[in-house]
Amino acid sequence: MTNITKEDGYFSVSEFAKLAGLARKTLLYYDEIDLFSPAVVLDNGYRYYYYRQLYMINTIKILKEIGMSLKDIKEFIKNQNPTIMINTFDQQQKIIEEKIKDLKTISSMIGMQKEMAMEAENIKMGVVSEEYREREPIFCESRKLYRRGKEVSLSMSVSKFYNDAKNQGITHTFPWGACVDYKKYMHDMTHNYFHYYYHVPESEEYMMEGTYIFTYTYGGRVERQEAYWKLVEYAKEKNYTLEEWAYEDYLINEISAKLPDDFIIKTLIRVI
C-alpha cells in the first residue's frame, strides 16, 4: 500500500495519538511490546493507524486506567473472542464496583470530618448546653483489655482498636472519639477509663438517641477532667440523671491540629 490518506481513514502516529489522547511515545511503546501496532507500515518505515483502531485503543486506555496490567491486556487482545471479552469485563466490573464502594466510603469520611471541624469554628468553650441527637452509628471497641490481671497500656489499647476496626473493613480515618467512664476519670486521670469509637456511615452499634448535655474543651487531660465536673454540676442543678458513660468527640483532631493540646473535644453525656 503506497497511497495512504486521511480520506481513507488512515492517520499518522502523531495524528492518531492526538485523536486517542495519548502521547506519541506511548503508541510507539505499545508497538514495541507488540500490544497495539499500526495497521500499515510502509517500506520507508512510516506507520499509519486505521480509524477502526480507535475503538481498541480506547478500550486499552480504559482497562489500564482501572488497574489492568499491560501484560493482561496483551493476553486479552491476543485471545480476543466474545467469551474472553465477557469474562474479562465481568471480572473488571466487579473490581470497579469495589472501588466505587470504597470511594463512596472515603467521600463519607471526608464529609464527616469537614462537618465536625466546621462545628468547632462557632463554639463557646466551657459552656454547658443541651441538644437532642438522633441515633448515630459508631464502631466501638467496648471490651476492656487485661494482661496478667492488669489493664493494658494506652498504646496497646489503641493498637487493638485499630486492628479490630481493620478486621471489620474500617480502614479510613473516620471522625473518632473516646467513650469514658467519667465518674472514675473525674477522680483519677492516671488510668485509662475509656475505649475508642469511630463515627461511621453504617454499623450495628449506635450512640443512643436522646437529650445530651455537652460542653467544648481543649485536649489536655486537666481540661477534659474539668469538663466532666461542669457537666455533672449542671445535671445536679437540672435534677438530671446521667448515663454511666460519656462520649468525647474529637472535632479538631490529628488531621487538623499538630498537638493534642490544640484538639477541640465535644464532651457529651446522655440524660436518662
Automatic annotation (TrEMBL):
> What GO terms are given for molecular function?
DNA binding
Going by the entry's taxonomy, the superkingdom of the source organism is recorded as Bacteria
- Pfam families per the UniProt record, alphabetical: MerR_1
Q: Which UniProt keywords apply?
A: DNA-binding
Matches recorded under SUPFAM superfamilies: Probable bacterial effector-binding domain, Putative DNA-binding domain
Q: Is Cell inner membrane among this UniProt entry's keywords?
A: no
Supply the InterPro entries for this chain.
Answer: DNA-bd_dom_put_sf (IPR009061), MerR-type_HTH_dom (IPR000551), MerR_fam (IPR047057), Reg_factor_effector_dom_sf (IPR011256)
| Domain annotation HTH merR-type: ranges | 10-79
Listed PROSITE patterns? HTH_MERR_2
Can you name this protein? DNA-binding transcriptional MerR regulator
